[in-house]
Structure formats: C-alpha cells, structure tokens
Amino acid sequence: MKLFGSSGIRGITNKEVTVDLALKVGLALGSSKKSAVIGRDPRIAGEMIEHALISGMVSAGCDVVRIGLVTTPTLAHATRNFDCGVMVTASHNPSEYVGIKLWNPDGMAFDSAQQEEIEELVAAGDPTYVEWNNIGNVTTNSNAVREHSEMIMSHVKPIKPASLRVVLDCGCGAGGTITPYLLREMGCDIITLNAQTDGYFPARNPEPNDANLGLLKKAVVEFDADLGIAQDGDADRMMAVDENGVFVTGDEMLAIFAGYECKPGGKLVVPVDTSMIVDDALPDSNVVRTRVGDVYVAEEIKRTKADFGGEPSGSWIFPQVSYCPDGIYAAARIIEIVQDVGLAELRRRLPQYPTKRGTVICNNERKEGVMNMVRSEMGTLGMVTDIDGVRVEMDDGWLLVRPSGTEPKIRITAEARTGVDELYEIGENIVKEALT
Ligand code: MG
C-alpha cells in the first residue's frame, strides 16, 4: 500500500485522509519511537487528525508533546529534542486537503525507507498495544515558536530600524504565528496581509505563485514598500515581490539566494526542471540536479554537504539552519540581502532565457514504454540525465520530458538562449512519435 507521496501523506479530508488512517499511522509510528512532538497548520481538519494520531501513538507507548498551531519549519526545529516529529499539514494545497508529514531530529523529512516501514506496519493491520500502565504521556509545550525565532535571530543580523518597509502576506496560513513578529524584531517596518490564521484560506489560494499574489503585488506599490513576501499554508515555502510589485520567479529567487549562500567551488542542489539561469549566474559553483521534490533536494544537500539548495516552487534549504525548507528564515535572509541591493536590481543582473512548457496526453499504463523510447531518442541530442524523466543538455539550452506523477500526461519543458520554440517542438515530436 502506497500511503506516502513525495510530500508525505496528503489527500481530501474524510475521503482519502481519515481519522482511521491517522490512528493507524499513529500506532505504527508509536511502536518504533519513544517520543514525538506534534504540530498542525490551521486546516479545519487539523485538530481532528492530530487527536487520532496522538491516540495511536500513546496506545503504542510513545510520549507525545503537543506544540499546537505552528509552521512546518517550527515543528521540524522542535523535533531536534525528540525521536520524531509529526506535522498535520497539506502545505500549499486548497482547504479541503489535509496531510501528515513525518520528521527526523535533524530536520530531514522521513526518507523512503522510513516511509515504507510505516506503510508496512499500517498494511499488516496488527498494531501493538502496550499494557495500561505503559501508555504514553501527552503534554503541551508552548515554547516552540519562541525557540524557532531565537534560532533564526541568532543567524541573521538585525537591520537598521525601520530602514525597510515589507509587506508580508501569510495567506491565512501558519506563518502568521511567527513571521510578522520575527520581522518586526529584526527591525522591519511591517505591513501584514492575511496574518490571521484561517483554515478556510478565505483570502487567497495557499500556494504562493504569481497568479495568487495579486493583492500583495498591489500592496507593495501602494505602500511604497521595499519588497513583498508571501508564504504557503505551512510556511515552509516563501516567495517575494520586488519594489515595483513584480513577482520574482522561483528560478530567480534560487539564483539570488545561491549567489549569497554558495562559496566559490561549492555545491548547489536543484531539481531537474530548474532554469539554466542558475548555472549561468553561478559559474564558480557545481550545480547538482535531483528528482523533483524538496525531500530529494534535502537528501542530496546532506549527502554532498552542499552550501545551499532549493526548488523553484519556493522551498529554500539553508543547511546551516535546517534540512527542512524554512519560509521564515528565508524571509529574514532575503530582507538581510535587500538592505544592500534591491530585488529589482538583483533580478536585472540575472540572465533571462525563454522557457516553454506544455503537456502531451498519455495513459498511465503507456508512460513507461513511451519514456523508454523517449530516452533512447533523446540520447542522440546531447548529454542525458534520467534521474526524473529524461533531461538532455545542449550547448544552447536543455529539454526535459517527464511523466506527470498524478495525471495522464507527459510534461515537456524547454529552455534555450535562442530558438526555444524549435527545441520544444523537437521534444514534442519525440513524445508524439513514441505514442504512435
Ligand atoms: Mg508547504
């Protein structure tokens, strides 16, 4: 039984993710761990799922500490003192979703082997209940947010008081419990939007992408702010808007952060669909590409001792702080950077290449056969990487053909210094040819 996707267990409340499932996961987790810390984002189903998880864990003899409504990076930071961490969140998904994500003490999400262990225990359906006098304790700790803030403040320098005006859009997500206070403590002049937590996410879709941040872009201009910052539902993701109200793309953010975080000769870890502006902006760094998914980026950063890594979707991983993407630390860090050079200028210094993305319909059953043909065909074009789909590197650009994990589609991405349409067409023809 496959419970975990690339971001933990996630699905529609009371349909795909139920208290019954949460209880089973709690029992499985509690039988192998002595202590756990649990938190949740503001989703309507959060507390319901949390209670079921706690009941399961303590039935199996695990002590549980509750830290309440917090961000995912706050929970990941709190996990350092426990055998594991449990976050009830569906991240950037819409309000009807809920999910469970499990964490290790070093801030790394459960890897595939750890997830399989839980899946097997759940599938076995034979939970271990401890004797009545060995059931776990449930206690509450309200220091997690303060400790997370203190950790971040120890890594960033306060700015000249009120020298920067920042509009912060928490999107009614968990970021509202920590980010406005932390940025104010740093010395920013803060204007908040949607900093009240609300599991219906009434203000905007929790995903911090260009289309969802219309209000933030407008507010940055209206308030004459230096930048805008947006987070997703659990604040592990963070994106920014420059002083002109222009959304900074994920590839640009990645290149900007990497420019400050990567030492000469150092390593930068990004997924296969990342723009080559990252390679061109950092000629002195080794760019390592992984499968798409922040957990794969985090694993590679740890394995290769990289300086920095991230995903253009808004997950930025600073290994000196945590292997968990931290949208609060990332907000503090971009503010530190923007003190010296504005975001619009930082964007202007980056190369811009046209990208073209599209999809071709393909039945799930045919995906493997089609991809095998695509792989051999694309091998004739240039250097191929096949860690996630097939990516081919050419002198003037790259082409990625990747089956969608959730939909009956094959995705094609092309980026080129010149002739992006032609390159995309080559990819599209290869896929269509393989389909005939
Ligand atoms: Mg998230």
What's the helix and strand layout?
Layout: E1 9-12, H1 19-32, E2 35-40, H2 46-59, E3 63-69, H3 72-78, E4 84-88, E5 97-103, H4 112-124, E6 138-140, H5 144-153, E7 165-169, H6 179-186, E8 189-193, H7 214-222, E9 227-231, E10 238-241, H8 250-261, E11 267-271, H9 277-281, E12 286-290, H10 294-304, E13 308-311, E14 315-317, H11 327-338, H12 343-348, E15 355-361, H13 367-378, E16 383-385, E17 390-394, E18 397-403, E19 409-416, H14 420-435
Parallel strand pairs: 2-3, 2-4, 3-6, 7-8, 7-9, 11-12, 11-13
Antiparallel strand pairs: 1-5, 4-5, 9-10, 13-14, 15-19, 16-17, 17-18, 18-19
Task: Explain how this protein is built.
The structure is a single chain. Helix 3 packs across helix 5. The strands form four sheets. This protein has a six-stranded mixed β-sheet with strand order 1-5-4-2-3-6, sandwiched between helices. It is an alpha/beta fold and 436 residues long. The model has no long low-confidence stretch (mean pLDDT 95). It is built from 14 helices and 19 strands. The protein has three domains: 134 residues, Alpha-D-Glucose-1,6-Bisphosphate, Chain A, domain 3, CATH 3.40.120; 202 residues, Alpha-D-Glucose-1,6-Bisphosphate, Chain A, domain 3, CATH 3.40.120; 81 residues, TATA-Binding Protein (2-Layer Sandwich). It binds magnesium ion (MG). Magnesium ion (MG) binds next to loops.
- Main pleated sheet: 6 strands, mixed
Hetero groups: magnesium ion
**DSSP strand (E) fraction?**
15-25%
The second-level CATH architecture of the largest domain is 3-Layer(aba) Sandwich
Mean pLDDT: 95
Q: Count of helical segments?
A: 14
- Lateral strand order in the biggest sheet: 1-5-4-2-3-6
Distance between the termini: 33 Å
Helical amount: 25-40%
- Decide which structural class fits the backbone: alpha/beta
Mass-distribution shape? globular
For the secondary structure, the number of strands is 19
In the CATH scheme, the class of the largest domain would be Alpha Beta
The tally of structural domains comes to 3
| CATH fold node name of the largest domain | Alpha-D-Glucose-1,6-Bisphosphate, Chain A, domain 3
Q: Over the alpha carbons, how many angstroms does the gyration radius reach?
A: 22 Å
User: What would CATH call the homologous superfamily of the largest domain?
Assistant: Alpha-D-Glucose-1,6-Bisphosphate, subunit A, domain 3
List unreliable stretches of 5+ residues: none
